[in-house]
TrEMBL record:
<keyword id="KW-0862">Zinc</keyword>
<dbReference type="InterPro" id="IPR013083">
    <property type="entry name" value="Znf_RING/FYVE/PHD"/>
</dbReference>
<keyword id="KW-0863">Zinc-finger</keyword>
<dbReference type="Pfam" id="PF00092">
    <property type="entry name" value="VWA"/>
</dbReference>
<dbReference type="InterPro" id="IPR001841">
    <property type="entry name" value="Znf_RING"/>
</dbReference>
<dbReference type="InterPro" id="IPR051266">
    <property type="entry name" value="CLCR"/>
</dbReference>
<feature type="domain" description="VWFA">
    <location>
        <begin position="131"/>
        <end position="314"/>
    </location>
</feature>
<dbReference type="GO" id="GO:0008270">
    <property type="term" value="F:zinc ion binding"/>
</dbReference>
<dbReference type="InterPro" id="IPR002035">
    <property type="entry name" value="VWF_A"/>
</dbReference>
<feature type="region of interest" description="Disordered">
    <location>
        <begin position="549"/>
        <end position="568"/>
    </location>
</feature>
<dbReference type="InterPro" id="IPR036465">
    <property type="entry name" value="vWFA_dom_sf"/>
</dbReference>
<keyword id="KW-0479">Metal-binding</keyword>
<dbReference type="InterPro" id="IPR032838">
    <property type="entry name" value="Vwaint_dom"/>
</dbReference>
<dbReference type="Pfam" id="PF14624">
    <property type="entry name" value="Vwaint"/>
</dbReference>
<feature type="domain" description="RING-type">
    <location>
        <begin position="7"/>
        <end position="44"/>
    </location>
</feature>
<protein>
    <submittedName>
        <fullName>Uncharacterized protein</fullName>
    </submittedName>
</protein>
<dbReference type="Pfam" id="PF17123">
    <property type="entry name" value="zf-RING_11"/>
</dbReference>
Length: 583
């Protein structure tokens, strides 16, 4: 009787045509599954002879389809780009007045930036075209309904890309493969992409590193570039071909990332928007990948809404209005100093002993907003001074649709200087942002506590902050308090945190609040995490996805002999009827 030998990593066949490696511990693997590993993934024995095949050089994919010549913009001014004008900058001071002979250390000033809006008639407005690489997990755990849902979601994405957008598809399991070159979504490009999606089949292990490496080769090898580029990564499992889990010390998730995708701060980069599919994915790995590249991390707990999650992300990527945005502030009156800037994930720099400061905002979707809290030291003034101009605010960015550079001046931050300042409530806008920042910091603190195993402490941090938010009576704070309450329940139970999506929900919330950008978090049926950051374009694309799913479900049920699944209320009604008949 002949026994079939399978790889201990991916469990695939190791018959003819496969390069294999048998370690000194007697375990046998595909060579590709243990390439450059130093220990056995089964028994953790350290190997003296390390398997490895290193290519002589990295070949890039330089066969991207050429761009069509962009339409000439003539003498159009950047102020009309995207049909919605320019960036709008506003300021809000913590209090409207400070007494003449009073000083204030850490006086809060809110800088509010809002990107240009979408045109009322989108067909008349130029849009920045997109280069998109989709990196899709097709490992064995994707078998069944998951792969079907993924194909449906990809069909929606392909349908919503325009003829000037380009798409490349990469699939990965034990190994990775580029399925389509970076091609324009013309009729031919769509057909090629749709065929590639239909060919997807689930099997093998999970090699996130190789999937991202293929994507990096597509991005780096481009001969021509669209204005906007992004990578979307979807995975439902843990990388079992690169990472070592359970070993002493922290797992080095950065090992999954090609260096060319890591955000360096020297000009524009390509973000990786990571989607954890289901409860078994490695949320720490996906969050690390997103953070290192400037992307977002979303947790798709309800697998049926994968299309909606993609749609929301695509809605943003297809509406990029500003790139390389930098907000600058300058202290006007002598003695005014910027002490610190609360800017979340966005790098800030305080220069000239606090007299100037900058925040590197980067890319903004149309209508997207960013709020930054500056803590300023304010000196006393002479008796003949009635007003102190604290800060001048400006923003420089590149219009994504036209490529033109834009400089915008915002409102000055000004306070009155009466002899005596009346006691008034602080600015609602400033207080709301202060509470939001503190909540984001507490989410990070709760994550750190949970990772130390202090789950009760993590739950207490979030519950305490939620109570403080709820006590404000503000509707937006109440919404954030509800989110913290749900997170508190998930982190308080070690089982829920580690195996039922608790960590993933927390990390997705961190990604959203630190970037002020919408992500999918937890159960879609309870709403989208960070929904307060959603833009009109994202909401519109999400609505189209919901309608498309409903239409598809109706068509499936109308052609099937099996009736659609009854609702919860209908099930309950039928049980009542059966109970009455039995009586």
């Amino acid at each position: 009787m002949k026994f079939k030998i399978s790889c201990a990593v991916c469990h695939g066949d190791m018959g003819r045509g496969h390069a294999t490696f048998t370690a000194e511990c007697s375990h046998t693997f595909h060579l590709r599954c243990v390439n450059h590993r130093t220990a056995c993934p089964v028994c953790h024995t350290s190997w003296r002879d390390v398997p490895g095949v290193t290519p002589t050089h990295e070949l890039l994919f330089d066969d991207d389809e050429p761009l069509e010549m962009p339409p000439p913009h003539g003498n159009n001014q950047a102020t009309t780009a995207a049909g919605g004008g320019v960036m709008v900058l506003k300021t809000h001071c913590q209090y409207p007045a400070i007494a003449k002979d009073a000083t204030r250390d850490g006086f809060a000033v809110l800088v509010h930036a809002k990107a240009p809006a979408l045109a009322l008639e989108a067909a008349k407005a130029p849009r920045a075209p997109l280069d998109l690489v989709m990196v899709l997990d097709v490992s064995g755990s994707m078998m069944g309904p998951k792969i079907t849902l993924l194909k449906q979601a990809m069909g929606f994405v392909i349908d919503k890309l325009g003829p000037d957008d380009r798409l490349s598809l990469v699939s990965f399991s034990t190994t990775a493969r580029r399925l389509t070159r970076l091609a324009r979504m013309s009729n031919a490009g769509r057909a090629s992409s749709e065929r590639a999606v239909e060919s997807l089949a689930a099997n093998g292990g999970t090699n996130i590193k190789e999937g991202l490496r293929e994507a990096a080769k597509v991005i780096a090898g481009r001969r021509s570039k669209n204005a906007v580029s992004a990578v979307i990564l979807l995975s439902d499992g843990q990388d079992n071909c690169t990472l070592r889990y359970g070993a002493a010390g922290a797992t080095d998730y950065n090992a999954l990332l090609p260096s060319s995708l890591v955000r360096s701060g020297d000009g524009p980069s390509t973000p990786v928007h990571a989607f954890g599919f289901g409860k078994d994915h490695d949320s720490a790995a996906m969050h690390t990948i997103a953070e290192a590249t400037g992307g977002t991390f979303s947790f798709i707990e309800n697998e049926a809404v994968i299309q909606d999650s993609f749609a929301q992300c695509i809605g943003g990527l297809l509406s990029v209005a500003a790139q390389e945005a930098r907000v600058s502030v300058e202290c006007v009156c002598p003695g005014v100093r910027v002490r610190s800037v609360k800017s979340g994930r966005y790098k800030n720099h305080v220069h000239a002993e606090g007299r100037t400061a900058t925040v590197d905002v980067g890319e903004l979707y149309a209508d997207e907003e960013r709020r930054f809290l500056l803590l300023v030291d304010v000196p006393r003034v002479a008796q003949d001074v009635d007003v102190t101009t604290l800060l001048k605010v400006s923003c420089a960015y590149r219009d994504a649709a036209t490529g033109q550079s834009v400089d915008v001046a915002g409102e000055d931050a000004v306070v009155k200087r009466p002899v005596e300042a009346a006691e008034v409530e602080p600015s609602v806008e400033v207080e709301r942002e202060r509470l939001r920042v503190e909540a984001a910091e507490d989410i990070a603190a709760a994550r750190a506590a949970a990772e130390r195993g202090e789950h009760a402490e993590a739950s207490h941090i979030l519950r305490h902050r939620g109570m403080a938010l709820g006590a404000t009576g503000d509707a937006m704070c109440a919404e954030l308090a509800m989110e913290l309450g749900e997170l508190s329940e998930r982190v308080g139970d070690p089982t829920r945190y580690h195996t039922s999506g608790g960590r993933a929900s927390l990390l997705s919330g961190m990604s959203s609040h630190w970037q002020q950008r919408t992500t999918t978090s937890g159960n879609y049926g309870k709403g989208l995490g960070g929904g307060g950051y959603s833009t009109p374009a994202m909401r519109k694309m999400l609505g189209l996805s919901v309608k498309a799913r409903q239409k598809q479900q109706h068509q499936q049920f109308s052609t099937s002999t099996t009736p659609p699944p009854p609702s919860l209320a209908m099930n309950l009604l039928r049980k009542c009827h059966r109970f009455l008949r039995l009586k």
